[in-house]
Amino acid sequence: MTPIATFLNDVPIFAALSDAARAALAEACTLQHLEDGDLLFREGDPGDALFLVRDGTISISVRGEDGARVPVATIHAGEFLGEMSIVEREPRSATGTADGPTTVVRLAGADFDDLLSREPAVATGIMLRMLPVVAARLENTGALVSDMVRWGEDARRRAFTDPLTGLYNRRFLDQSLGDQIARARRDRTPLSLVMMDLDHFTAINTEYGPEVGDRLIAAVTPVIRAAFADNHILARYGGDEFTFILPDCNAPTAERHCESLLTALPTVDLLRRSGGHIRTVTASMGIATYPTDATTEQGLRECADRALYRAKELGRDRVYTQASSAEEP
Hints:
Elements (H helix, E strand, L loop, with lengths): L2 H6 L10 H9 L1 E6 L4 E3 L7 E7 L2 E6 L5 E7 L4 E2 L13 E4 L3 E7 H10 L1 H20 L1 H11 L1 H8 L9 H18 L3 E8 L2 H8 L1 H18 L5 E6 L2 E7 L3 H14 L18 E8 L6 H17 L4 E3 L1 H6 L2
Parallel strand pairs: 12-13
Antiparallel strand pairs: 1-8, 2-7, 3-6, 3-8, 4-5, 4-7, 9-11, 9-12, 10-11
Helix pairs in contact: 3-4, 4-5, 5-6, 8-9, 9-10
């Protein structure tokens, strides 16, 4: 049995195929080896092949409005990508890059057509087993990328960013956190997750009205940007809730960024000019750090949420980390 045929034995979408069918498929495939950072395909390239990741990972990204690459998904060993190339033969809607040494199995669209004519049951069986995965992708990342390609830069911005602040939105943050943790694990680097709420925001909305609340959210945005680095992922999670992913940041470094933000927030004078009871802008923040506080996405979220809650319990206008708990009496 060839190396490709052996690999296909462990790929879920081929699990129900006979040995003879897998052997026929393996004959139509080739191996492609990539080093870290090598391009598998570029956005706009012809969609002429389906790929299966044998080992390593492929990061999928699209180009943002500012020209920077924006990650949207990570394809792991045993998973496939480029499936629309054997369905619609449309240009690539994203860029695929090797995330470390990676080997992929390539099935050219022309070879699949040939397989379809020679072994229609084999080709049809593959496509039927791909459908549930493809449907899930179209509901999530696939639909997101398709919309951006179809409707251009404005859709790119709307798909990934919060319209009020221009920061990333909840959908983008939820897609990114797992990938960022995986990268930190691979590179053996720290990563900090920060959760932040503006203090007394419900009272501010009640006293000043929701329009002023929205203006306040917009006014604090440039202050937030100034406190963090260019590679930090800054997102408005909803309402007055913000979440920040800080790659390569341990807890003390993350705390310094947050303290800088706490110092700058009171300079926002919108409330002072509005003549109400609450006049100073402050916030509460909780920090959790990989791998010292948690090693999973859920664990990191829960730890940051507990830290945020503790910051509020202690009187707000402060940042709380796991290390802070050791200093409490």
